[in-house]
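Dock zinc ion; give full complex structure.
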Amino acid sequence: MTGEKGKAVVSFEPGIPWEVREYPVPDPEPDAIVTKITMSSICGSDIHLYKGDIGSPIGERQNPKIPGHEFVGRVHKLGSNIQTDFIGQPLKEGDRVVWSYYVPCGRCPSCLYDVALPCPNRHKHANFNHDEYPHFKGAFAEYYYVSPGQWIYKVPDIVPDEAAVYVDCAASTVAYGLQKVKLGLGATVVIQGAGGLGLSAASIAKDIGAARVIVIDKLPDRLELVKSFGADNIIDHNEYPTPEARIERVKELTKGRGAELVMEVVASAPDVVPEGIEMLGLGGTYLTIGLVGPYSTNLRMAPFINKGIKLIGSANYGPSTIPQVLEFMARTLDKYPFDKIISHKFRLEDAEEAMKKAMEGKVVRAAIVPD
Ligand SMILES: [Zn+2]
Ligand SMILES: [Zn+2]
């Protein structure tokens, strides 16, 4: 230990105000890395945790815990065994890096089947007491302790922090989902929701080969951005206020065929699911990613049977996803304004205010920048 200290925001039970605490910056074990966070951002699941929708039951969360799981930073201290990142690029102190928050064990039946499935041994660090060593295991802090086995990658110089920050998790989560459903060349994709996930999904779907991307939302700030992220058509709730009108519009745009893929990336509107199913054509796929809270909805089963529709869920991503997304961003930065998804920036001390703004839907994506 060098006597260095770093600030972190800690959360408790939902409803208890967050606090800023100071912890000693640990020395890394031989296979670990300590990073200095340059920016973090607020994801939909952070909002659900803040509200108490997901995570440990209320009454079991007394431990101080640093929230947040989207980040970018610089290597502060390298463990003595580490020479490269996870794709073999040399790594040294000062390099810009992103890393995965999600840490599957890699050696259980679930991981062997699909490493993005919820590994029963994952997130071992998520519920520990952050007052204890190694402290820095959340995004809203000055430092982060990248544990042995946690995937880490160098960020291409050309990709700014404002884009790299949400590679884990927003952009990688949708990239993995789109690969999982094997999006085909020339497909029509409907994206329900134009937040960080929806905007990332629009540009990635175009890059994979979608012929037409249709994005649905109602917030003016988001709809403003949608076109620059590759959307061919926008369906504004204010213009098409009923599910029937929106379904009809998709049918119109696809010459009556319906879409090959509809995906939801909304935080809390489960009624988009039955609506999206009706937008699909024969053999279409419905991909669900955003509704991680305690939501349910009524589904009519006939379309699944008669039209051969598939319903697929996806969370997390694999070890190759982050470098694929970084390469995609570096290659298409002049085409898509990835840095514009971060619409508001807050100081570390104002992280809870940022969370409240995000919860009220007043931002596209909020970032937290330590001093
Ligand atoms: Zn997330
Ligand atoms: Zn596992």
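Observed: The two ends are 22 Å apart (CA to CA).
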